Amino acid sequence: MNNDELILFALDASRGFGEAVSCKLGTPLSAHEERDFEDGEHKTRPLVNVRGRDIYVVQSLYGDATQTVNDKLIRLLFFLGALKDASAGRLTAVIPYLAYARKERKTKPREPVTTRYVAGLFEAVGTECVVTLDVHNLAAFQNAFRCRTEHLEANPLFVEHFAPLVREGDVAVISPDTGAIKRAEEFRRSLGAVLTRPVGAAFAEKYRSRGAVSGEALVGDVAGKAVIIIDDLISGGTTVARAAQACRERGATRVYAAVTHGVFADAANAVLGSSTVDQIVVTDTIPPLRIHDAALKSRLIQLSAAGLFAQAIRRLHTGGSIVDLLRS
Amino acid sequence: MNNDELILFALDASRGFGEAVSCKLGTPLSAHEERDFEDGEHKTRPLVNVRGRDIYVVQSLYGDATQTVNDKLIRLLFFLGALKDASAGRLTAVIPYLAYARKERKTKPREPVTTRYVAGLFEAVGTECVVTLDVHNLAAFQNAFRCRTEHLEANPLFVEHFAPLVREGDVAVISPDTGAIKRAEEFRRSLGAVLTRPVGAAFAEKYRSRGAVSGEALVGDVAGKAVIIIDDLISGGTTVARAAQACRERGATRVYAAVTHGVFADAANAVLGSSTVDQIVVTDTIPPLRIHDAALKSRLIQLSAAGLFAQAIRRLHTGGSIVDLLRS
Amino acid sequence: MNNDELILFALDASRGFGEAVSCKLGTPLSAHEERDFEDGEHKTRPLVNVRGRDIYVVQSLYGDATQTVNDKLIRLLFFLGALKDASAGRLTAVIPYLAYARKERKTKPREPVTTRYVAGLFEAVGTECVVTLDVHNLAAFQNAFRCRTEHLEANPLFVEHFAPLVREGDVAVISPDTGAIKRAEEFRRSLGAVLTRPVGAAFAEKYRSRGAVSGEALVGDVAGKAVIIIDDLISGGTTVARAAQACRERGATRVYAAVTHGVFADAANAVLGSSTVDQIVVTDTIPPLRIHDAALKSRLIQLSAAGLFAQAIRRLHTGGSIVDLLRS
Amino acid sequence: MNNDELILFALDASRGFGEAVSCKLGTPLSAHEERDFEDGEHKTRPLVNVRGRDIYVVQSLYGDATQTVNDKLIRLLFFLGALKDASAGRLTAVIPYLAYARKERKTKPREPVTTRYVAGLFEAVGTECVVTLDVHNLAAFQNAFRCRTEHLEANPLFVEHFAPLVREGDVAVISPDTGAIKRAEEFRRSLGAVLTRPVGAAFAEKYRSRGAVSGEALVGDVAGKAVIIIDDLISGGTTVARAAQACRERGATRVYAAVTHGVFADAANAVLGSSTVDQIVVTDTIPPLRIHDAALKSRLIQLSAAGLFAQAIRRLHTGGSIVDLLRS
Amino acid sequence: MNNDELILFALDASRGFGEAVSCKLGTPLSAHEERDFEDGEHKTRPLVNVRGRDIYVVQSLYGDATQTVNDKLIRLLFFLGALKDASAGRLTAVIPYLAYARKERKTKPREPVTTRYVAGLFEAVGTECVVTLDVHNLAAFQNAFRCRTEHLEANPLFVEHFAPLVREGDVAVISPDTGAIKRAEEFRRSLGAVLTRPVGAAFAEKYRSRGAVSGEALVGDVAGKAVIIIDDLISGGTTVARAAQACRERGATRVYAAVTHGVFADAANAVLGSSTVDQIVVTDTIPPLRIHDAALKSRLIQLSAAGLFAQAIRRLHTGGSIVDLLRS
Amino acid sequence: MNNDELILFALDASRGFGEAVSCKLGTPLSAHEERDFEDGEHKTRPLVNVRGRDIYVVQSLYGDATQTVNDKLIRLLFFLGALKDASAGRLTAVIPYLAYARKERKTKPREPVTTRYVAGLFEAVGTECVVTLDVHNLAAFQNAFRCRTEHLEANPLFVEHFAPLVREGDVAVISPDTGAIKRAEEFRRSLGAVLTRPVGAAFAEKYRSRGAVSGEALVGDVAGKAVIIIDDLISGGTTVARAAQACRERGATRVYAAVTHGVFADAANAVLGSSTVDQIVVTDTIPPLRIHDAALKSRLIQLSAAGLFAQAIRRLHTGGSIVDLLRS
Predict the structure, then answer these.
(1) Which residues of F touch E123 (CB under 8 A)?
(2) Cα separation values, A319 from A54, B211, D54, D86, Å
(3) Coil/strand/helix, residue F249
């Protein structure tokens, strides 16, 4: 094997995504051992020589029936530590879904700034770079980490998916709350560039009058248009469902949602199953484990982010521009 | 002098604010020497024994005719370093206006995350705590600094000022863009608590249709109401002026602006001098050096944040709760 | 409340042990909020002012049905981080059972040195001191942590328990393998001092001839004696069961086991339920959650280590000697 | 472009020197954006991919009409930070004139050791190497920085310039105070080696008798010789002027000054314009912005240090010896 | 010279071992200057360009008549510092015998954990990797160092030496106390693999009855066998002598000792000179300076570990597997 | 014992100086154990509880017959480490004579900057403050250490000693080379203040003409005066002897030397024994172990610096001003 070639690992819980990345990258997953003990501890080690090599470890930090979020985080940290001890060269954590990205500020007194603690833990085990996709609060993420970070965007995947669907007719891109306005605007621009015609924008927000929520505002014109709701994450589903409802009420002809991370709490089955969204498009950073509602299932489309990560890894390895990747 | 008493310094450029804090605190400013050399370098040192003491240094990081933002930042850093070398106990930087708080994320490829670099510089000279007021992006600030930070809010000052003014009639609190919604909501709640009646909310935002800005949205009802526009910072003044205009058009009876930091670029004279805002209320973290328009001057009111900082310093020194201060 | 008094927290999963410590210490548990989210993340924060205070947080790192070992570790780390951010003074993690203490060396190529990674994680969130009890490998523990550590020993609890039981007749202390020889020797000396007569020593070890395990060696004389088997941890139970069997075969009259941490894997029910041990004495650092075998239950005695931790915390807080505590 | 080729930036304020280095090096200056905002803040970013590359950033830290010393320092620090964030490989700050090198010790109680703070700031943003020329106090500089430093010397430039001028007749090298003796001695040896005949040495120093300055001592013989005064920095000009005067009085036939950094305060116009120095030779690390006296101008010669820096950068990039460069 | 070739230094006190490594490696020792001053200080520097190169420095940390252990340690640390300052690339300390490896835990109150302090000192001067052989407590060593470590084993040397000697007849491998059981077991397995027949195991341990040492236990069968005693270090020699004596008494036909580091205190002459060991085999990490007893001398065999270190250095330089080296 | 009282240790090699400090301070030396092993390693530990206490450890870093400079340095470092591990509060190293202070710059290519490495070692074991006396290069020292440093001056001791001796007649203070000019000037000022009349100044320096040393310059008037030669350190003695000779030749009536650290190499016996110095005054930071020449002995006076250190420790402990101490 060539010393200059990168080494790719995927922890067991992210084997599926890791294999998809491996396939796109043309680099096989390297072998590791991941062993659980009856007392709840585990031990993980690489089974190949990693000395001085450029290493990438894939682990997506969502909880599932076998491993909690914290389990996956600790396993990733300890495996990175073991790689460092085994004299790995550059050590990059590839984290399709980065947990605790929404615990990024104190909203009540003495709350944790968990994003920063997570950053500190990665640095403590010797991580040199963290690659992830569409974090909830980009500024918090970019300030929290002092090791290098690469932030990918699902934007190009969504543009590629939706451009054929909205080839004809008027289109508007909707931010379902004010937090997603920047993300939606990016998508609107990219989509417009591909469609080579203008795309409208709108956003929704709850508003209050005299101290109580008095309505869902929808700013912008959606009547007679196909609308695409953009968000980074879908959990209970109410944000998307409400925005979709508001669009329908104001005359939208079709309603799509394009959301990077499909966290999907149990409640989402009812909320989204009965909603008026025509299509909910997510990436495969999180498998749709808790979705059982048939209506929801039939409207759910999963795009693979594996190619995006594969390209990013390739460019990180060769010193290529990630900027170009995001813009392409 | 009692070894347990705190020591308060203010650098020359912030002497005015420092004296106000000193007065409220009942602790005299301690002497320092700040000497400029012809080659553009400077030397600053404390003139009192600081060994093992609890030290607070006031410096507000705005640029003016004598010192640029960067000058003030470097002077503060080097003075903190000199205090550390002189065996200071705990070292707290008291920064009424923290520069570079808006340079907190990459909006274009390869941009700096300056907030984080600033945090790193403070830590490099041994700063243990940074106290500031209403930073632009709270999450970015809380993630950037790894030394302790205390974030004060001008909210109570504004509530105290506006409660008598809106004692009668309907009131609404306006966020002039979506970035200030959380801040405005805090103010709305506090004001409502003091008035013991509900206060309305609204927010403005530019929106786009087919790729161009097509209007200023104002979500929420302001007709027949006194409105208070809330923001963290006023520079060119257009954000506030536009929001005020939108309120007027929708029937607001009076329009006030409550903005923590009055940066006031030269352009603000024209923009705000001709605007329809009845009163622009700022704090004294930045003196209104560039305001010369008479109309603007007559409508400008400056509240002193010195008492707020004095209380925070007292509580930091004695281990009292800052949370209580923010809530009182 | 007095600023000089310590503050004691116990995370929810260790509330029982925390309350026992609190009771012995005469210091109430301070309030905290620990909230789980549907996506598997959590948020924890202190509900009292911790500014500049001497803080102790109790969390025992064993896995149970509700929280895995890794969950408990991450929760402790993030809560320590939140306390640091809330300007805690000195921050001490009180960990009755410290996980991953047996993952302390590479026994195969490229294995993790997990003990060291755990140390690094505690330091990353600002922990200043770690207090624990009878770790598996003392040298590994003392080298891994660069923050302060205090290592308590259950020895005095066992001496107090066994001295009355072996008041009459010959006694021998048994190390069930060579790894526990130092620990057993400490106990033998202490017990002898209390009984004011000599106590015998013996140890067991598997040995090999021509490449295969050919027997269980028992070095030392146990015939006609009450024997006490000493170990730091009991998991599957075979080590203790085999040592007990060897003692019986060599004429021991009574066989006791004194083991600090009762990890008790499911298999222990069968192994120890059918063993010839008269009494298995453990501490309460881990509740005996997986023990259902009636025979085992009837022979199991749990001594509380809470008083030991309470005394250690008191001495840490006042600057008293921990050495004296271990020797008393 | 070849990934192995170095990347050279020059901040706007040092564009001239940067271009000279670029020219000597045969490597074009890479593009960056440096943008000033009305509030006195700025934003700087590279416009090319720097991932994993060997980066050199030129910024000379003297103050001028547009940017103060502190402005230039902060701009350099933040640009280095942005490069690090953009995944630069090795990051070298190339600083022809390093500010605050004379603030290197406490001469009064509680004074700053600014050189060390500057070092700390460079390290805080991720600088791996600092290259500079003839710092005032070499020992202070070498102890202050913990990142790598390369210290160049203008010596070879001065030797090359003066050797033809003093080809005939007796020559002496003068240190204008005792602080420059080592530097002057280096030059004397090099010049002697080129001239292949001995060169005399002398030094000047103010001395005191009974508590007052009672005269300027000139130790060594200068009668009938061409003398070259050597120093690292010329500011007000009195040190050089006095030494020149003393040489003239003791019979020197020609008097030259060779000073690396021409800081030139305003006062230097009068002091040096009326002095008896035949030629004042400086390098181009600082442009002679404040020199307006015609007499001084006519005697001032500027040698370019760009070639020296270009050679150093080339050797740093390829792992060549800097020692050889200094000795050549 | 090729920039990619490694550079090997040996400090003067380890010149012999360094030359042996150099010879095996085919890389000449690079020149350095090591100069002692009358006041007891020293100065050491490389005499070749080390910029960006992969550097290995050999120094074995035993005390002898000219330099104490601490002298050698400080010389190594300062030379590593000088190399770092001279812009060395990767910096590896090659330490055949690592001092203070037995001071690795607190056996009495407030004792030092010296192994950890030594690790901290190496890291403080910029060491990136430490390579050593058979440390006393592997877990302590692996936890103490946070820079990379490579742990070599003399095992293959001993197997190669003893396999021909025990080609015929029964063989047993003896651990002279319980601390060496793991090491002995490794050797037993390797020897068995080469001999392609089973090798027996046994171990010795002092045991106590009623508080006094009452005998030397020897667990396992040695009658009629050639026995090989395995240990990491021989100092006074009593451990080996007693184990040999016990083996003889139980019918061993031949008794060998295989010990990595021959520290050999003066007392060892008497103890081992009169012992019944047929052959004492050590490596050359420490020269047998204090051995003068003729009987001991005649039975002492020194194997060179230089080839082992040479292979390790070669693999470290090229990214080869050290694991394979240990297993081969 | 009061928790607030400081704890003073002196390592065995500095027991004499430590006892003198203890006596002046009124604080007994606390007990420690310092044990040497036959293999050249040692183990040191405090024998008292140091938890949270303010600790001072005295060790002077000169070499003598029993311990080399490096031995003493390592012992101090490891003892500081043990104190930190034993939960010491603030940890101050009191080093009357700091070794390697003259190895503070590169005078040849690739030389070590040993002062900085020493600083790094102290920081690595957790030292928070270093107190020493008259280091060779103050700027180097102040830049090297990033932990706190306190620099004492023997100046007041020398003034107190010499004032009565030069009560009558003219006096001049001589710097024996240009490196000591600042130190001599300080002394001249202080002595003048006590004598309440002006004191002259002069300095010596070798100078060169045409490449060879051609003489010893003595700048300033000494005829008919008592002269006091000031230096930080006396080793071979030639610097002082030459300066004394030059003074005599120029008519000085009496010649004294006041030198802080009496390193005294063997050669000093001959050089100074035959010199014309009337009195050589040193402090007791180094015992005059190598002085055997009767003439030298009779002229040597040792002043105790113990009181100075005692006062510094008292002020460090109570937060008093060290500045005042230096100026008193």
Answers:
(1) 124
(2) 12, 35, 12, 11
(3) helix
Adjacent-strand bridge partners of F207 = F215
Put simply, the answer to whether F115 touches D143 (Cβ < 8 Å) is yes
Residues 6+ apart with CB under 8 A from F110: D323, E45, E46, E47, E50, E82, E85, E86
B170-185: per-residue pLDDT in tens?
Answer: 999 999 987 888 899 9
Token output for E6: 């490694």
Chains linked to E by 3 or more Cβ pairs within 8 Å: A, C, D, F
Closest chain C C-alpha to E150 CA, distance in angstroms: 11
> Tokens at residue B129, please?
């705590």
Burial bucket for residue C2 (CB in 10 Å: 0-12, 13-18, 19+): exposed
In this predicted model, what pLDDT tens digit does every residue of A84-127 receive, in sequence order? 999 999 999 999 999 999 999 998 999 999 999 999 999 999 99
Please give the full DSSP string across A99-131, using - where no structure is assigned: TTTT--S-SSTT---HHHHHHHHHHHTT--EEE
Query: Which tokens sit at C315?
Result: 């001495």
Q: Which two tokens stand for residue A155?
A: 């934007």
ipTM over cut 0.85: yes
**Record: contact E208-C200, CB cut-off 8 A:** yes
Question: From the list E141, E142, E202, which residue is nearest C207 (CB)?
Answer: E202
pTM, two decimals, is: 0.96
Q: Which residues of B touch F320 (CB under 8 A)?
A: 49, 51
Q: Sort out which chain C residues have CB atoms less than 8 A from B315's CB and list them.
A: 51
Interface test with F, best of B5, B33, B51, B85 (most F CBs within 10 A): B51
Q: Please identify among residues 140-199 of chain C the ones whose CB lies closer than 8 Å to any CB of chain A.
A: none
Q: Please, which chains are in contact with D (at least 3 CB pairs closer than 8 A)?
A: A, B, E, F
Of the partner residues D102, D114, D124, the one whose CB lies closest to the CB of residue B120 = D124
**Pair C175, C230: CB distance under 8 Å:** yes
pLDDT at F181: 85
Give chain B's residues under pLDDT 50. Answer: 1
- The answer on pLDDT for A210 being more than 70 is no
Q: How far is CA E140 from the centre of its chain?
A: 16
Closest CA to C312 of C165, C156, C196, C152: C152
Q: What is the predicted pLDDT for the residue at A225? A: 96
> For each successive 10 residues of chain C (328 residues), what is the average pLDDT?
84 98 98 95 97 97 96 98 97 98 93 98 98 97 97 97 95 89 91 92 74 71 95 94 94 97 94 92 96 95 98 96 77
Cross-chain CB nearest to C68 (options A71, A103, A117): A71
Looking at residue D1, its pLDDT comes to 42
Cite the DSSP H helix spans in chain D. Answer: 15-25, 69-85, 114-124, 138-144, 155-165, 181-195, 238-249, 268-273, 294-299, 306-318, 322-327
Spot the catalytic one: F43, F106, F182, F206: F206
Handedness of CA C160, C165, C169, C175 (dihedral sign): negative
Q: In what order do the strands lie in the sheet with C254-262?
A: C212-219, C200-209, C171-175, C226-234, C254-262, C279-283, C300-303
Predicted local distance difference test score (pLDDT) of residue C325: 83
D104, two tokens: 């290197």
